[in-house]
Structure formats: structure tokens, C-alpha cells
Amino acid sequence: MGAEGHADGTVGKALDVLDMVASHGRPVRFSDLLQQSHSPKATLYRLLQTLTHQGMLTYDMGVGTSALGVRLVRLAHAAWAQSSLAPIARPYLDELAQRTGETIHLAQIDLGQVLYVDKRNATRPVDMFSSAGKVGPAYCTGVGKAMLAFLDEATLANAISRQSFHRFTPQTLDTPELLKAELEAIRRRGHGFDREEHEPGIICCAVPILTRSSRVLGAVSVTSTTARTTLEALEGHAPMIKDIAARIAAEAESWRFPEQA
């Protein structure tokens, strides 16, 4: 869609700019943003000025770069406290980590993708993609598939339309048809797996966190490596993970979470 025809108007275009700055992972020059943006030069410049004046961005005049502003840190902290499962789930994740000795992930779904909101490292930590605050693909991660499987039909269709279906490994489910078959199996057994679908050697067993009305609040997983254990051994933790997920959901029932995208 062209910048001037953004469905969400100026606010949508401003948020797109914030996303672009964030995607670089470092201070970024105007010329780099202009190459990436669909907005005309004057529009992009005006949006950057407004975001800087509002504290959403900072501008370093010495080197001519923009970076995310501290106001976003305050907003992110408030969002974490108000809308994230992390504050509620903290003691349950600690318990699960202590009982399994493996890596524990807590995730929620955001615009069809996985947002990792908390993590506990294994007794012997493993280097992997996930960390709190990172966004990952839903179609090829255990927590992502566990959440997708229990979305309502319309929300699921929207989420699937947002998947890239990039083939990360030979095990990646790289078509909507393969994913839908997997989601049906997850619904039947109540838990999902990552069979080295996102990263070679990384496996997990994941369970959705559902309200009594089956609304998806998030997912929790126990993750390890093929060098240390097997998928069958991780599945042995499924009853424990389901108990933890149910306890998180019960405590979260009184909270008001944003609708899932």
C-alpha cells in the first residue's frame, strides 16, 4: 500500500516508521530509512520530526542518526505490566524451570507472530534465537503452533495469511496445508512440538494458555536440544506443562488482555 493511502492514516504511518527504526537494531540514518520506506521524502522527514518531538525517537545531530526514544521504554514497561502474562506467570515459570532443568518460554501472539514475553534458561544454557521481547514466526515454533491451534476460525485465517512460510530447516512446515494438518493434531492432543522446525537441534513441547471460554492468552513451552534429550522425553513433561498453563490461566482470568490478532 502506498504511504499516502495507509489504511490507518498518519498514526499508522508513524508506527511503521517506529517499526523500521527498531528493525535496524542500531541508530539509523535518514537515507537508510528512505530506502526502506514507502513514504515520500518530505512525509518521512515530517514523521521523524514529530516522533522525535514526542520523545518516541531520539536524534543525534553529531552523526545524523535516529534511534528509539526513552518514552518508548516507559510505554513498553507499562504494557509489560498491564498486558503481558509475564508478571502473573513468573512464579510458575520458575517452578517449571526448577522441575525440568530445561529452557522455559512464555509467549503471546501479536499480529499473527510470536512475541516472547519471558524466558528461563536451562541448568546448562543453550544458545538459541528466543529471548524476552523478541518476535518470532508462529508457523514453525512450538509456542506459535500451540496458540494458532486454538484461535477461532476468522482469527486463525488472518494469522495464517501473515506467515512467511520460509523454510528454515528441512523440518519446517512450509505451506498452509501442512500447518493446518499440524494444528488439527495439536487440538486433539492439547500440546504441540517444535521438531527442529525453526532452528537445527532445537526441540520443544508447548501448551496453550487458555481461559475457561477457550480464549488464547499465550503459551508456555519446555525447550531443549537433540544433543541432550529427545522429543519423546520432552512430551513426558506435557502433563506438568498443562498444569502450569492451567494455573497461569486461572490467575489471569481476572485480567483484561488485548484481543489477539
Considering the chains and any ligands shown, give keywords for the structure.
261 residues, alpha+beta, Arc Repressor Mutant, subunit A, Beta-Lactamase, 2 domains, 6-stranded antiparallel sheet, 3-stranded antiparallel sheet
What's this entry about, in short?
Helix content is 44%, strand content 20%. It has ten helices and nine strands.
Description:
Helices cover about 45% and strands about 20% of the residues. The chain has about 260 residues and is an alpha+beta fold. It folds into two domains: about 70 residues, Winged helix-like DNA-binding domain superfamily/Winged helix DNA-binding domain (Arc Repressor Mutant, subunit A); about 170 residues, GAF domain (Beta-Lactamase, 2-Layer Sandwich), CATH 3.30.450. The strands form two sheets. It has a six-stranded antiparallel β-sheet with strand order 6-5-4-9-8-7, sandwiched between helices. The protein starts with 8 loop residues before the first helix and ends in a 9-residue tail after the last helix.
Q: How are the elements arranged and paired?
A:
Elements: H1 9-24, E1 28-29, H2 30-36, H3 41-53, E2 57-60, E3 65-68, H4 70-83, H5 86-100, E4 103-110, E5 113-120, E6 135-136, H6 142-148, H7 153-161, H8 176-189, E7 192-195, E8 202-210, E9 216-225, H9 231-235, H10 238-252
Antiparallel strand pairs: 1-3, 2-3, 4-5, 4-9, 5-6, 7-8, 8-9
